[in-house]
Specification:
single chain; 8-stranded antiparallel β-sheet; 7-stranded antiparallel β-sheet; elongated
């Protein structure tokens, strides 16, 4: 994962330097003036995409600090999912005078300027950090000072690999500072404790999506995740919209109300190294609940169906409140797993086939009609093994000014 930063602290110049490229052909340039990025000339309105020369992955962000707001018209702002010399493509947030802003998709306004009444107006001020993120499969999120303030859902999402600065503007009376952009960092764990409104058909968060599109949804009941639709032997996987480092973990707390040893093949657990939404690929650790025992299983799934069993044991007991953790590390024939319960290792295994080497984390939950809903997940956590510092850490670094955001109560 890569991040590019630029504080513009260098000599005045009529370009931003070799790390930047002009995204729209034959357009004016940006300049550096008094350690701030500004528009090079006024008098010609243009949509400028000045992108860092590097390419980035699916889940991108870009952010700037607003140094000087324009007296009139609009100014440059963060740009994501653009292409080199794409003629103004990508998603761009462009603050305007009076503290307002517009969100554009390849030059077309999709929010702001009165087109979307839910888009915040009179929002931005000098010193604010404004940020765009692409999350999940089609969500473009506007943030201010580390807080989500608007989400645009694109039915045909852009796929560009560049980030940078862009906007429509006419005057050179604005300035931005402290650019940061690239792959969304995942160095700190994600946490969801599900403390939001109940739902029978959704987890009520853009951070989750189905790994198998056709499978039933999860829901929320009294601050716990559960299988909200009768799943039979289907697997309603829900998975985070961000890739983690290859050595990763997922963990959960067995939620209150869970009643074991009565469900006919109900399953509750977590996933690592999941593929993209709809792929149905990844590793699962789950507790298989029958009327006679609890079986801890590690399996691979491909296309939404179990393809091989890596570990299978009935020697581990569980109860409400237990913290169950699933770790994966290595690759190829040395793809290794560790299962922990309340911090102690209770199972180790190896996938000699090395089925999956990277991906995301998620949950798996099913139930049977003979018993109904009796399996619950609480306090889901996922992150990189190299940086985990505790079972429920929940911070993310948002780049240059180190805004730290807590991902609790999605």
């Amino acid at each position: 994962m890569a991040i590019f930063t630029d504080d513009f602290n260098r000599a005045n110049a009529t370009s931003l330097g070799s790390n930047w490229q002009i995204g729209s052909i034959n357009t004016p340039k940006y300049q550096i003036s008094s350690n701030t990025c500004r528009y090079y000339s006024s008098g010609t309105q243009a949509h400028l995409n000045c992108m860092n020369a590097k390419s980035y992955g699916t889940y991108q962000y870009a952010q700037v600090t607003l140094q000087t707001l324009p007296v009139s018209e609009s100014m440059a702002g963060p740009l994501i999912k653009a292409t080199y010399q794409g003629g103004g493509d990508g998603y761009n947030l462009s603050p305007t005078y009076q503290g307002r802003a517009t969100l554009r998709r390849s030059g077309t306004i999709v929010a702001g300027a009165g087109l979307d009444s839910t888009f915040p107006t009179s929002t931005f001020a000098t010193g604010d950090v404004v940020r765009l993120e692409f999350r999940g499969t089609n969500s473009v999120v506007v943030m201010k000072n580390g807080v989500d303030i608007y989400t645009y859902t694109d039915g045909s999402p852009l796929t560009g690999d560049r980030v940078g600065l862009g906007g429509y503007f006419y005057n050179a009376d604005w300035g931005v500072d402290d650019f940061s952009g690239g792959d969304i960092t995942t160095s700190a764990p994600y946490v969801d404790n599900f403390t939001r409104a109940d739902s029978t058909s959704s987890l009520n968060s853009i951070y989750w999506e189905k790994l198998v599109t056709a499978n039933p949804s999860m829901g929320i009941s009294t601050n716990r995740a559960y299988g909200s639709t009768l799943a039979g032997i289907g697997y309603p996987y829900m998975v985070y919209g961000y890739a983690l480092e290859n050595n990763q973990y997922a963990q959960f707390t067995i939620g209150s109300g869970t009643t074991f040893l009565q469900n006919n093949n109900g399953r509750v657990g977590v996933m690592v190294r999941c593929g993209l939404a709809g792929s149905g690929d990844g590793y699962i650790l789950w507790i298989l609940d029958t009327s006679t025992n609890l079986t801890t299983q590690i399996i691979t799934v491909s296309g939404g169906s179990g393809s091989s069993t890596i570990a299978n044991t009935t020697s581990i007991s569980y109860t409400v409140g237990d913290i169950v953790r699933f770790e994966v590390s290595g690759s190829g024939a040395s793809t290794n797993f560790v299962v922990k319960k309340n911090g102690s290792t209770v199972l180790t295994a190896t996938d000699s086939a090395g089925s999956y080497s990277s991906g995301r984390a998620g949950m798996a939950l099913t139930y049977q009609s003979s018993v109904g809903t009796n399996l619950f997940i609480d306090d889901f956590t996922a992150g990189d093994l190299a940086v985990t510092t505790g079972p429920l850490q929940s911070t993310r670094d948002y780049g240059v000014r180190s805004y730290t955001r807590t991902l609790v109560n999605f």
